[in-house]
Each structure stands twice: as C-alpha cells, then as structure tokens.
Specification:
The chain is mostly beta strands. The protein contains 3 helices and 46 strands. A hairpin with a 4-residue loop joins strand 12 and strand 13. The protein is globular and about 80 Å long.
Length: 749
C-alpha cells in the first residue's frame, strides 16, 4: 500500500500523552535582564524534553531546550536556554520587530491567561533579540481564503495572488509592553523575557493555572519542536493543545497608557499647484485604560498613521476589486473581536473603509473610542470613529461597530455583529446611511474538524433587492489530509459600505482536497503535496458566470525549498463588454480557457535565495505568459535586499498588451529597535514609480521616532490621459513628494 509506505501509522495518529505542566515560582526581586541565564535560575525545575513536530513528529528535539518561569507582583519572567552543540552555526536572519520567524532560529511563548483554549498571546524572539508579539482569538482558527491565485492576478510579493490581510485569528499587529534580552553563549543561545502583568488580560486570583506552550525553530535543520506536543497539521496558535503553567498569583491593577504624538513635515502636490508647499504640524494622542482585568477602553484623537507602510502595488486583469490589507495599528489591535465573513471575499467589517477612500488616499480622522475584551465566556467589541469631510471626496461620517460573541467548548463560538455608517454635519441629509447586521457560528468538533457559518444583511436607501449574504463551510485537517468544502450566496443588493465584498449576485459552491504524504528517511524530500481545488460562481437563474479548477503537485524539500507544477481550468462568461486594458475590450460571450504554471523557491533562510513562477496558456480568447521572479540577499540580521518582478504578456484577437510590476525592498537593522527601510515600486498599468523610505527608532511597544519620505513619479513624462501633451518642466516626472517626522512617547501609569 502507498500510504503506509510513505507515512508510518504512528506518524498519522500521534500518541496522546498527559497534559504537561510547569510551575511558576515566586521571585523575591526582579532578575537582572542581560540575556544570560545565571545560577539564580537553576534551583527551579525547567520545562524541558521538547518534542519534534518537524521533520520527525514525536521524536525528541535534536538540541535540548530549557524554560524556567518566575513572577513578581508586577511581571512574569521566562529564562530560556536553547542549547546548541554548534553555536557558530546559529542562524540569525531577522532583525526587525515582528519580523517573520520561519527563516531564523527563534523561540516562541504562548500564554493562555484565561485557560479557555480559545484566546492567547504570543511572545517571541531570535538570537538577535528582536521583539515579536501577537494576539490569538477563536482558538487560532482562520477561515481559509478561497482558492489558489488565478491567471490575471499579480502582486509584487513574489507570488501571484492577493496580499495577505483581512480576517484572521492571529493578530501580529498587537504591540504589548515587554522586554527581552538575548545572548549567544558557549551553551547555545539564551533569552530572558520580562512581561509586565498589566500587559496581559486575566482574572485576578491566587494559585492560577494558565495555558502555556513553547516552540523552538532550529533553522539549519529546518526543525520545529514544542514543549507540549502539537501535531503537524497545526501550529503554536492551536491554544487547546497547550500545557499548563501553575502557581501564578496575579492581581488585577488598573493601568493607563497615554501616547501623545507630535508630527511635522512638508508636502508638495505637483499635479495641482506645484509652487505650493503644504506644511503639516500635527499633534494628537492615543490612550488605553484597563476598566477591568479583561476589558480595555481605547481613545484616539486626531488619529494619524504617517509611519505606516505603504500598500504594495498589484496588477488586476479581472473584473473585480483588488484587496489591500489594513496596516494601521489602531485598527489592527484587537481586530479579531470584530471579524465576520470569508477573508478577502466577504468581510462584513473592513476597517480600511474608515479614513481611506477608494483610491487609497487618506481621509482625516477626528478621533474615536474602542471597548474590547472578555467578560466570562463572552467576547465584547465596540468601536466608534468620526471622520472629517473632504470636499469632492466624502462627507464627514460616523462609524459604529458592535460585536458580541460567546465561546463554548474548546474551539466553538456564536456571535452577532451590527455596523452603522451615518453622514454627519450640516449636509448630512444629502448622503445615505448604511447598516450591516450579521450572525456567525464556528463549531469545532474534536481537533480535526471545524464548521464555519455566517449570515448577514444590509440596509441601503434605494436598494430593495436581495441584500443578504450567507455561507457555510467545513474543514477537516490532519497532516496527511486536508479536505474542505462550502457554499456561499451573496445577493445583488448586498452592500456593506464598511465591509469588503469582491463581487455580488452569485451562488458559489467550492471544495478542495489536499494529500500530503511524507517519505520516511528521505535525505532531500520532506513532503509531497498533490492537491485539487474547484469553485464555481453561478447567477441566480442558474447560468455559470465564473469557474476555476486547480490541480497541483508540489514537492517540499528538507532545506525549505519547493518545486511544483499546476494545471488550471478557467471559465468566464461576460454578460457585458469588459475593458481589460485601455482600448482593449473583450466582447460579450463564454470563455473557457486553460493554463499551466511551474513554480518554486530555494531555501529562504540562505544568504541568497530566490522564487520563480512561469505560467502559460490560454486567456479568454487569446494567450497569456506570466513570469514572476524574486531574489533576496541578506547578511545575518543586519540587512536584507529583495527584488520581485512580474511580467504579463497577453495576446487577444481584440489587441495585445503587456504589464510590468517591479518591487525593490531594502532593510537595514542597526539594532532590533532601530532600522531603515525602503520600498521602490513600478507599475506599468498606472505609469507610476513610488518611493517610500522609513527610519524608525523604537523605544517601546512600537512608539518612538519615525522619519518618512514618500514620492511618486510619472514614468511616461506625459499625461497618460493626453499622450500628446507633455507635462510642463520641471514637474514632468514628479507627481507628489512628502517628508514627515513623527515622535510618539508612551506614558505608562
């Protein structure tokens, strides 16, 4: 038989062991944080005996790891020794706060303060001493984005498809107040964490038991190991698989954090009045107050996001909207409390609708308030924001979002959502309001199966048709098999103006089957991954509008590289002409077409690495060739230079055209809290080059000094809407330019 020869039965069904426990010890005084675990810690019994998840599930970790835990009245402490028989070979490739941990030696801590198997915090670091933290809700479960990327979807991130973002149970943009110090020593590498108790939310009491787990990434062996074993199908976010930390005495104390900011700079818009320079002195503040041990109240006034990364460019050859992820910290924090829907398809609440217009331009935010947290088994979320009016763009609006959900069992919850958008000001009666109402139920059956459900309606003056959306889907997930299927229906008048809907008026069934056997004792290959996905979009009269069938065979290598070949069957029916490129219009009709894709990547932790994807075949009534290549070069954790390029060559009976998308990124980390980052982008469809340069000097919890330079250039030298008219010098190339400096400081009471 094929399956037993590839995957031993013991690997398919891991042995169940008793819950692991570790004691947290009361400390008489805070320890000195210097990154070296000294003799004062050795009297305490460690959490040890880590178990591999990859590559050999259930086997002891190749290198030992020990974790000792202490606490004082004010803080929780973790002393970690990652033993390594070859300290010179430790890989340290990440130098930025919240930087990706997959390609570096790293250590992660999961803390479930309520011990409810649903919610938690992640604190992590690398041998370079970066700070990495995140929030987890809904037991680490995120409903999957529908299907692989299709022909005509391109981003500059090195792979085709939409950028990540939107609904997620894992929120990397949560920034807590805590410290970590690390050292590489003769024993390996060591870390000491100090996590103030007021950074966490918990129930007061003595001798508490909190959920806890630890994960170590040993990158040169591409090995992941856990203290409390986690099957290969899951990761550290699966809160229900954690062990317990016992003996914590934690008393709630109210805290207040005030973060004022001052900002100044100059902006110049060469497309309107080149001679005018706009100076932008701004002041404002954010504040956070803990009402109870588990409820937090946030305020923001004159909200500003000058330091936020710009969006990565995308090329859209479809008829539907692109998805750009939220990146603003205020909206990302505690965002998991407000989510209902399917990521990047139907999101009933999408915070980018507040303070950003359809072109990506900023709309000033006056301020707002947010209440979020837990009360027993209930999760509570409330948000109210007020924006200013922008002449010719948008009226002033008030946005209110209210969310209540109840958890039960290990991975289940039911909830309701209500959203209101109301114009304000003297001319409010000229603009319509909009409401969205939703319910959801996510049911976890055992550790393998999850059932996701939601339904919603909207109210918009003048829209009297089908104003609803509903979906039900199931997911069965093991290391060997992943099987998913679902059904979604969206009415033609479903209009969540504070949400995201990629398309309306459809019924969509879908399924996916993934088979991932792992060969035993293979020196080069870690996993085979054949998989198949199908989805179809049908009008309510039964006519098919779109279809996509994806069949793929991928091989993952032990060093982290991969290679794959995919075959795609597409179908599009155009009920009205579609201008796919300026002057090139596809006529009404039925378009079945197929294409192939050959893709892969090298070891992403190496000093030099690459990605590639070449797709070719039919496209509507013609042909397409898409080349996606990426390359990166790094030196330890100090600098990373990466470049990505996407080229589409399209030949159609109605005309030929090509698109180019290029992105160049550079990051230099002076220290784990000080870095310089640049992003240069070129998109031929907009005829623009964008430059974004940011310097950050972070003090604590992503506050500090930020200096930002932004500029956009016209790559043509003439107005694309008037090809015969050159732009007047000296402004022929430059469209706009801005230099801004922002300083934020946290007062923590």
């Amino acid at each position: 038989m094929l399956i037993p020869s590839l995957v031993p039965l013991s690997a398919q069904i891991p042995q169940v062991e008793a819950m692991r426990t570790v004691k947290a010890h009361r400390l008489s005084a805070p320890p000195l944080l210097d990154g070296r675990v000294d003799e004062s810690w050795m009297a305490y019994e460690p959490a040890a005996n880590f178990v591999q998840q990859l590559p050999q599930e259930g086997h002891p970790a190749s290198e030992p790891t020990e974790v000792r835990i202490g606490y004082t009245r004010e803080a929780l402490y973790f002393a970690v020794i990652c033993f390594d028989s070859d300290p010179a070979a430790i890989r340290s490739t990440q130098g930025r706060r919240d930087g990706a941990l997959e390609q570096t030696d790293a250590f992660q801590i999961l803390i479930d303060t309520y011990n409810d198997d649903q919610n938690g915090y992640i604190f992590a670091t690398t041998a370079a001493g970066i700070e990495y933290d995140a929030q987890i809700v809904r037991g680490g479960q995120t409903r999957q984005i529908g299907g692989p990327p299709r022909a005509g979807q391109s981003s500059g991130s090195g792979t085709a498809g939409a950028q990540s973002g939107g609904i997620s149970s894992f929120n990397l943009n949560w920034d807590g107040v805590w410290r970590v110090k690390t050292q590489i020593t003769e024993r390996g590498w060591e870390a000491e964490f100090e996590i103030p108790l007021k950074t966490l939310r918990f129930e007061s009491g003595g001798n508490q038991a909190w959920g806890v787990n630890f994960m170590r990434n040993l990158r040169r062996m591409n090995e992941q190991s856990f203290w409390s074993p986690v099957p290969r199908a899951f990761d550290i976010q699966r809160v229900s698989l954690a062990g317990e930390m016992r003996g914590v005495e934690a008393k709630f104390r109210r805290s207040l954090q005030i973060v004022p900011f001052i900002m100044g700079g100059v902006q110049q818009d060469y497309t309107h009045d080149p001679a005018v320079k706009k100076y932008t002195p701004e002041v404002g503040f954010d504040a956070k107050y803990t009402l109870t041990s588990s409820l937090t109240l946030d305020f923001t006034l004159n909200t500003d996001f000058a330091q936020v990364e710009v969006d990565e460019e995308q090329v859209n050859l479809t008829r539907f909207d692109l998805f750009f992820p939220e990146k603003r910290p205020f909206f990302l924090e505690n965002s998991g409390y407000f989510t209902v829907g399917t990521p990047q398809e139907v999101e009933m609440f999408f915070s980018r609708r507040i303070g950003i217009d359809s072109t990506g331009a900023q709309i000033p935010i006056v301020g707002g308030v947010r209440l979020s947290g837990k009360q027993g088994r209930y999760n509570i979320g409330f948000l109210n924001m007020q924006t200013e009016s922008v002449l010719g763009v948008a009226p002033s609006n008030n946005f209110t979002v209210a969310r209540l959900s109840r958890e039960f069992g290990q991975r289940s919850s039911v909830g309701i959502l209500a959203i209101n958008k109301s114009p304000t000001g003297s001319r409010a009666d000229l603009y319509p309001s909009n409401q969205t109402y939703g319910v959801d139920a996510n049911i976890g059956l055992g550790n393998r199966f999850t059932w996701f459900n939601y339904a919603g309606r909207t109210q918009t003056p003048g829209r009297t048709g089908n104003d609803y959306a509903a979906s039900s889907s199931g997911l069965y997930n093991t290391d060997l098999w992943r099987i998913e299927g679902g059904y979604t229906q969206v009415g033609n008048d479903f209009n969540p103006e504070v949400g995201f809907v990629r398309r309306v008026a459809y019924r969509r069934p879908n399924y996916g089957i993934f088979f991932a056997p792992r060969p035993k004792h293979n020196r080069y290959i870690r996993r085979f991954w054949p998989h198949h996905h199908w989805e179809g979009y049908y009008r309510f009269n039964g006519e098919q509008e779109s279809g996509f069938r994806h069949t793929d065979f991928r091989i993952d290598f032990n060093n982290g590289g991969s290679v794959g070949l995919a075959f795609n069957e597409n179908f599009e029916q155009l009920f009205q002409p579609f201008e796919i490129s300026p002057g090139i219009v596809l006529p009404v009709g039925r378009y079945p077409f197929t294409n192939w894709s050959f893709y892969g990547n090298t070891d992403q932790s190496a000093r030099m690495y690459g990605t590639y994807n070449y797709a070719w075949g039919d496209f509507y009534s013609g042909h397409i060739r898409t080349l996606t290549v990426g390359a990166g070069m790094r030196s330890g954790f100090r600098y990373l230079l990466s470049a990505n390029y996407v080229r589409n060559d399209i030949e159609l009976p109605v005309g030929n055209f090509a698109t180019d998308l290029a992105i160049l990124q550079f990051t230099y980390s002076f220290t784990p809290k000080s870095y310089l980052q640049s992003l240069i982008q070129y998109n031929s469809t907009s005829h623009q080059v964008g430059v974004n340069i940011r310097y950050a000097l972070i003090r604590i919890a992503n506050t500090g000094l930020f200096i930002v330079y932004n500029s956009r250039f016209n790559s043509l030298g003439y107005d694309p809407n008037d090809p015969g008219g050159l732009l007047p010098p000296p402004y022929r190339r430059t469209l706009d330019r801005a230099v801004l400096a922002k300083f934020t400081y946290m007062f923590d009471y």
